[in-house]
Here is the input.
Amino acid sequence: AQRVTQPEKLLSVFKGAPVELKCNYSYSGSPELFWYVQYSRQRLQLLLRHISRESIKGFTADLNKGETSFHLKKPFAQEEDSAMYYCALRGGSNYKLTFGKGTLLTVNP
Amino acid sequence: DAGVIQSPRHEVTEMGQEVTLRCKPISGHDYLFWYRQTMMRGLELLIYFNNNVPIDDSGMPEDRFSAKMPNASFSTLKIQPSEPRDSAVYFCASSLSSGGMDGYTFGSGTRLTVV
Here is the structure.
């Protein structure tokens, strides 16, 4: 079975502060991990995927297999980062993504 | 490409009525997914198709829900009869099984309210 846990439903930081959105997963094989972002009342958009090791909008995420984590980080949060963030996992031969319940990030001025 | 297109954007219906949600995936994508989003449960996968064939419908809540994909460019999710607890945002997503690490492309969703 595959499971994604995002322990924080809500996260509030001030502009310019570092932010870390936590994601832990449970999967027996080698997972593919993703972060999706949903701005207010918009569609979900792919933000990051672990395989590409990229930085998008200043966000990075590192897959830590020992801790089974894929935390999303940004050193200096911006107000426009306020959104719902979902961590997602895909594993095995099936093609479905399993999502965490999401973390609502609010960046205050 | 216009992306994944869902219709309607909003639907308000009375309990007991039939509701049909529609989705047009990105041309050439061979996977299509239906998700339901609620505050309490987050994003739940209802069903997904590969090459128009349903692969996994274990997330469909009950017999009142059904989904079809008659061709590669169209899918429907039907609820009959609808109940207030079905109120949610329903997302359709499509993906290409390129063998790579691509995620999904989501539609804008249909916000369903059953009164």
User: Anything to note?
Assistant: Residues 20 and 78 of chain B are 4 Å apart (CA to CA). The two ends of chain B are 36 Å apart (CA to CA). DSSP finds no helices and eleven strands in chain B.
